[in-house]
Design a protein that fits this description.
Structural class: mainly alpha
Number of strands: 7
Largest sheet: 5 strands, mixed
Strand content: 5-15%
Helix content: 55-70%
Length: 763
Amino acid sequence: MTPRHLNGALRLRLWLLFLGSGLCFGCASAGPPPQHALQPLPSLGSPVVPDDADHAARDMAEAVLVDDTALAQHRLAHLEALDASRRDQGLAPSGLIPFALDAQNATLPNARDRRVATRALLQRRDIPKAMRTRLDEEVKDDPLLLAGARIHDERVRRFGRAANALMEPVGRSITSTALAPYRLASSLLGLAVAEHQEDPLTTRERQALAQWKQYVEQNPDDPRSLALLDRIRRAQSAWYETQRNHALKHASDAFSSRSWLLATVFAKRALEYAPEDAKALRILHQAQERGNDWARRRARSLRASKAPETVAPIQRGLAVALLAGDAAAVEREAHALLAREPDDRLAEEAAFCLALAAQERGQDAAAWGRMKKLAGEDEGGQNMARHASSAFYSPQQHPYRAFKLARRGVLAKRLGWLAFGRFQKGPREMGLPRPLEWLLDAPSIVGVAASLPNRLLRMPFLKVDWDAPAVSARHYLELRPDGAHSQELRHWLLGYERGRGNAIGALKLAEGEAGESEGEIAKLREAAAQQSLKGTLREKKSALRLHLLRQVAREYPQTKAGHEAGTRARKAIESFSPQRIRITRGFLKENPAVAGPMGLALQPTLLDGSLANGELHEEGVTLLGGRVIELSFVPAGGRNADPPKRRREQISQERMARLVTQLEEASHKTLLTDRDARFEPDPDRDLFLERARLGLLDHPDLRASASSEYTFKSMRERYGIVRSRESILPVELVLKGSFTDLGLGAFPRIRMPKATPDAFLYK
């Protein structure tokens, strides 16, 4: 064999070796989990004998508790001397000095002095991270700083709104300069309207006012409090004006809707803030006058009239027929009454009874025709004419009419939007007289007219809201399932439910539809079962999810989804546990103390990343109630995406108490040191953890309502590898397009300050 052939064979062997090693690496399998996943708990050892630092800390605490400043200073000096001695011996400091200073600062009587001392304490470098976070929050909790920040935010908002109103229309007109004047005018108009509708005292200014008041109350002798009094007076006056405007608006709205009592209440409230306000006085007097008139008429209508001594036999016969519910007898007696006394006051009652009888016979058209005719005779305020009017125009009593009106309204709304755009309801509400609002909003008509082709293109793809007609149609079928219009409305509802993908609703309607085939009903039943199963699997509570699974299996027994629901229900029953509080593998790695010797005491090999010696699955450890835990291991395939291999173990009371203690301490530390951390409220979780800490788990609570399915996740599992952060720059670049004129523009925009979490308290 030539050297050339030898080199070729060697290269071939090397390639085969490389390929084989790659395949072996790609098919790496996980080793079996260790027989003992938990280590023996380490002994706590003999009690620790207090040293000099412990005695000094005790003495410092005693001085702080008795509020002896001189003694506290003396013992603080003793602590510092001990730390200096430890440094001379090459030992680490005790770490007690920051805590001693913090305790001493807490005894200062003045909040302002406490913040000054805390700010000085923060200059030290030996403060733990959790403690530093808490002290930072205390320093920032300064009424003057908070008020200044809110005033600054308000100024940025006002300036940013005005600047953005100028920059946006200019930047969007790069490709369509002809529309630049219109866009600029429209933007400036919107800015003027926003300024007009602004409250005299905005939300951020209200927050600042509250902080100023708090500072003055806490520091009445501070010179800065005197300087704040004038600002407080001006802000308080603006607050009264804001309250008056709100109350007056509510009073006007209530008066327009003929709610006299409500209008009176809001008008009086407006007068509390502006005692001589002419508009509030006018609304109050008119509302009181009309309210009193309404009360007099209502009292008169409730007054019972004297019953006649004798009742005519023909009237008695009609009353008996109505009470018996005999439609034929009602018609006979009513016709007899009309023939005998056609112009009597009881003629209206007889006509109303004829309408009721026709409705009982299923003659809807005749019944509502009589009602409409009788309702049109309400000029003199006759009793039965008012009853007929109320019945005919009521959506609850005449749902078919409500259905037709609602469907007509949907079509009219679509056509109105197509023809007039946002002007289908008139100009924007600006709090001005309506003619002036039309005048100010007139420039926008040009843009609305120019966007007609765009609306024509978008109209076929817009979602139509048919909910209101559907409600009336369902109500009709509930009242009159065999009525004259039942087939029509059932057919319409069937198309509506199919169109929005509600197979459950469509199945109920199709089963009552005469023309539906068995094959179509079978398809709808399968789709309805699948829809029910998907909704059930989204339920988080295991007990309720189990109940829903069993219900799906019972309602759809012949479907694939029903069979799957039954299988899932059986597995859920087999794996039932009072609790399912899960601690993920990521959380255990992020908080090693939880898995360490003083916590659960897991074998270190389960978290070392090596599959060969067994590895914990991403699901981690689950607390199942009592003292039972479930360990999830990576399966033999070596992939975390595959279902894990699970093993249950019962641990000792001491191990459970240690685990719970470390778990809660790790969560609390994360909350103190990570601003993105969240600890969702879960009373059932907290109750179980408290019982575990106290050693009360030998009798678990088996009630479904007492279970928790909370998951302790690592911060990476919650927010990903790279967390989103807001830019620190005050300006952002915006790229924006317009479907109206197919324009494209880019412009800078000032970033608006966000509302604080407590802003809703000042609305």
